UniProtKB/TrEMBL annotation:
<comment type="similarity">
    <text>Belongs to the leprecan family.</text>
</comment>
<dbReference type="InterPro" id="IPR052284">
    <property type="entry name" value="Collagen_mod_leprecan"/>
</dbReference>
<dbReference type="InterPro" id="IPR011990">
    <property type="entry name" value="TPR-like_helical_dom_sf"/>
</dbReference>
<dbReference type="GO" id="GO:0005518">
    <property type="term" value="F:collagen binding"/>
</dbReference>
<feature type="domain" description="Leprecan-like alpha-helical">
    <location>
        <begin position="29"/>
        <end position="322"/>
    </location>
</feature>
<dbReference type="GO" id="GO:0030199">
    <property type="term" value="P:collagen fibril organization"/>
</dbReference>
<protein>
    <recommendedName>
        <fullName>Leprecan-like alpha-helical domain-containing protein</fullName>
    </recommendedName>
</protein>
<keyword id="KW-0325">Glycoprotein</keyword>
<dbReference type="Pfam" id="PF23557">
    <property type="entry name" value="TPR_leprecan"/>
</dbReference>
<keyword id="KW-0732">Signal</keyword>
<feature type="signal peptide">
    <location>
        <begin position="1"/>
        <end position="20"/>
    </location>
</feature>
<dbReference type="InterPro" id="IPR056585">
    <property type="entry name" value="Leprecan_dom"/>
</dbReference>
<dbReference type="GO" id="GO:0005783">
    <property type="term" value="C:endoplasmic reticulum"/>
</dbReference>
Amino acid sequence: MGRTFQYCLLVYSVIDLASTSPDDPQLTFEDLYQYGKYEYTDGNWPDCVAFMKRALEDFQYFEDELVWCRRKCSQQVEAPGEDVLSQKHAHSERALCLLRCKRDRFTEDRPPLKRMNTYFDFIERKPFQYMHICYWKMGDLDMAVRSAYTFLVKNPSDKDTLDGMAFYMERPGYHDGMLVDTLRRPYEERFISGVKAYNEEDWNRCVDDLEVSLEKTMEEDSRCRLLCEDKIDWSVVDGNPELDVLMTSMQASVVRCQHNCLYRLALINGHNVGHLLATHYEYLHFCYYKLMRGSEAARSVANFLLFDDNPLMRRNKYFYNKQYKNEELFVPDERMLDIYKQRTLEERYLNFIEEKFKFVNNEFPPERQDDRKKFDTSVSVKDIFDYSAVRKLLTQIECKTLRSVFPVKHGDQILEELEERVKLLWPTAKFETRSCSRNARLAPCPRAIVLSIEHDDCSEWLGAMHTGCAVVFCT
């Protein structure tokens, strides 16, 4: 009875001040979320929604203030010198700045985060898993669908919510306009709009939307990286560790979280779009090309290849190079080069941690000389792929044999030898198909190598959509 009375008092303040910063700093999203779950269990549907909405707002407020403080303190502290104590002092200055900033923004009354599991529930959008049911019980189909859809965007294989969504779709009054991700970020809005423009062949809008989406993606990645600065895996800290052991564990947790930001951002509208930066340029290069902006198309190809070595994009570079005959066009943007270098070094560091700190059968891996070497910070950005080698993969005699409509004695042997040659350029390549047709057809895999076996262009490197006789390898 006491708990119910307390909730009644809280609900009124929650509803009245739902759009402001917390009126009671001691009442955080952790508490509000728990209260919402209690109301869900008790069948108090309006109170369930009110607490969950208020919890989501406080969570957004919490993250925004953290980002603001961390960005401010990173910018205000002067860069340290090279000596160790100077760097330690800079860390101390930033720590002091953060403590003051958090106290100022949150006030001394707000308690610290109690359980990281609750924080991750909000990252996974768990409140919406309760809200869609509470809305349905209140008779609000529109908000039930929106809440269920918002949860499914982050958790597309959750069976219970999928079943709930299927149920809602069969109710009178349902329409597809209700399928709204209420937490969709600006970069997602523009990316989805840009891809839609691409499919509609609206090349100007495609460029406008995807360029803005790229900028917003960078902003979102920066925000995500700042939010990673307290994502420390304390489970690996055992007993009374050495300072270096403790620092390595903490740093690896943070770097791993930061490196994964772009992977997490790539889940758009419930679909993983692959490497998010590369995917932007996959669309942009073609839209630029259609607008006769050749230099920007070439630069987009170069940007793509920093992050993804898809042979179809290498073929685009081969095609543009033949058309424009200017290798200097394929220079990536400075910002993309910086991101590529940063991610390469992060991956190198994390690989070292994963390989060297494995503890199997109570033993670490055997000691090696490179365990004590200085960290290699060199990163090559040169495209060393041998584009000219593709035209030498097949001879005219081999092309003639492979396009024969009759079984040829040495046909299979030629394909085996060709696969070995192709593997010198693409080590994971496997023969997929050999076919002839006047009709245009699409390669059967998303990372295809398509080689012509026609007489006039034997061993020519074709695109995914092709005609005539060709052999296809997949990577």
